[in-house]
Design a protein that fits this description.
The chain has 454 residues and is of the alpha+beta class. It has three domains: 149 residues, no CATH class; 131 residues, SRA-YDG (PUA domain-like); 106 residues, no CATH class. 36% of the residues lie in helices and 17% in strands. The chain contains 14 helices and 15 strands. The strands form four sheets. Strands 1, 2, 3, 4, 5, 6, 7 and 8 form an eight-stranded mixed sheet that branches. Helix 3 packs antiparallel against helix 7. The radius of gyration is 27 Å and the shape is globular.
Length: 454
């Protein structure tokens, strides 16, 4: 076959063999470093098949022939999904759930259960993993004669940022339309993305316990809900979609936000409302008494929205336009933290962490970070005052913000990961810490106002 492609030319055949060897070695090295699975079925596909079988059994374990009579899928297709031979798309998964709902006699067959939402998210991960495997095959194909693609100035959409062809304020009739347009590729769950790459998009629903202020959203994470009552039954974990949003906070990549329209003639429809950035996240006690994760999303300025919507230029085009690329001025309203207060607290403690006592010495002098006990932004509006600021090293600053570092009223510092006491917070006559703000920090992270010394 290769001989026919190369018209029998030995030199061309040898070049093809060399390209194939180099490509395979490169892919093998990448797979080795990532620990990528080499099995035909990815772990994500196995996980989806297992979760689908669990839902099937929870709905009565009926035969595929019986369920097929209530949906647009054949029994053979349903068997293929349950056995893991093939993956459905979002529309077919919805038909499968409708068939199960009809068999078990649900009064609202179109309303998915929480368990079905988990299956939908597992499908999203499985299909993403399969796309990555197809990418690997395409890379191998490029080593074949004629396999090198023609260069194009059209960039590939990687799932993050603005979707090409979708404009701000565009309406969609239902979740299926959102999925097909690529605005929110998760067919059921409210968060689309992965813990490794970050969150691509979120959907804001009126029934969800979020604080929506328009340009600022305090978004409540997912999970820990009873599928029958819809009540929270245990603490939310920083996994799945919650972990994806926390990754976005670290990477700074924008997140698409879509709101469900619940009033007027467009009830049940959705509206794309642009790009937001995850600026902060924390855990706190929810309405049902269990811990929830909360994420502060801030809308990007108009000029940033426009720039994100423009295709990224190729390196050649970028070099060509560097000299005459237009510039524009923009202004964004943000909370201004008092540099004087932060520097005062750090000077009082000689840039030494109040928890561990470490003083970092850099090339330009000592370094420490000013950490606010009660956040300044919505919805807490903490004061930018000395009694609300701590002088910490970077490690303990991060742990404090994530609620993994707890400070009691007696100033004992507890590591929440293993409940060990790290010591006592250092105070001075010039810097007294507010016990009220410490109590607020504990309650915000779903702990009693005073944990007491451990």
């Amino acid at each position: 076959m290769i001989g026919a492609w190369t018209a029998g030319g030995e030199a061309e055949l040898q070049r093809w063999r060399e390209r194939r060897r180099t490509t395979e070695e490169s892919l093998a090295e990448v797979a080795r470093r990532k620990g990528a699975a080499t099995a035909r079925r990815t772990p994500e596909e196995e996980d989806f098949s297992e979760q689908l079988r669990v839902v099937w059994q929870e709905c009565g374990g009926h035969s595929t022939e019986r369920v097929a009579r209530h949906c647009g899928l054949s029994a053979r297709t349903l068997d293929s999904y349950l056995e893991g031979r093939t993956l459905p798309n979002a529309a077919r998964l919805r038909e499968l759930f409708d068939g199960l709902s009809a068999v078990r006699g649900d009064s609202e067959p179109a309303s998915p259960s929480i368990r079905e939402a988990l299956v939908g998210e597992a499908l999203f991960r499985a299909r993403t993993a399969r796309k990555e495997e197809r990418t690997r095959v395409r890379q191998l194909a490029k080593a074949l004669p004629g396999g090198q693609p023609v260069t194009s100035d059209t960039p590939l959409f990687d799932g993050f940022g603005a979707v090409p062809g979708v404009h701000l304020g565009q309406r969609f009739d239902n979740r299926r339309a959102l999925t097909q347009a690529g605005v929110h590729r998760q067919p059921i769950a409210g968060i689309a993305g992965s813990r490794y790459r970050g969150a691509e998009s979120v959907v804001i629903a009126a029934s969800h316990p979020d604080d929506d202020h328009g340009d600022v959203i305090i978004y409540t994470g997912e999970g820990a809900l009873d599928p029958l009552t819809g009540r929270q039954t245990h603490d939310q974990e920083l996994t799945r979609g919650n972990a994806a949003l926390s990754t976005s906070a670290a990477t700074g990549l924008p997140v698409r936000v879509t709101r469900r329209i619940t009033m007027g003639p467009h009830a049940g429809a959705y509206r794309y409302d642009g790009l937001y950035r995850v600026e902060d996240y924390w855990s706190e006690q929810g309405a049902h008494g269990y811990r929830v994760w909360r994420f502060r999303l801030v809308q990007l300025a108009a000029v940033e929205q426009r720039e994100a919507a423009q295709p990224a230029p190729t390196p050649t085009a970028k070099a060509r336009e560097r000299s005459n690329r237009p510039r524009s001025m923009s202004s964004v309203q943000r909370i201004v933290r008092s540099t004087a207060i932060a520097n005062l607290v750090k000077r009082i403690h000689d840039y030494t962490c109040q928890v561990c006592g470490i003083r970092l010495q850099g090339a330009t002098g000592a370094y420490a970070e000013a950490a606010h006990i009660r956040p300044l932004g919505l919805p807490y509006d903490g004061p930018d005052a000395v009694e609300n600021v701590l002088c910490l090293c970077p490690n303990h600053h991060v742990l404090l913000d994530q609620g993994m570092l707890i400070i009691n009223d007696d100033l004992s510092v507890v590591n929440r990961a293993d409940s060990t006491v790290l010591g006592h917070l250092r105070e001075t006559d010039n810097h007294r810490v507010s016990r009220e703000h410490l109590a607020h920090h504990r309650v915000r992270h779903a702990l009693p106002r005073d944990e007491g010394a451990q």
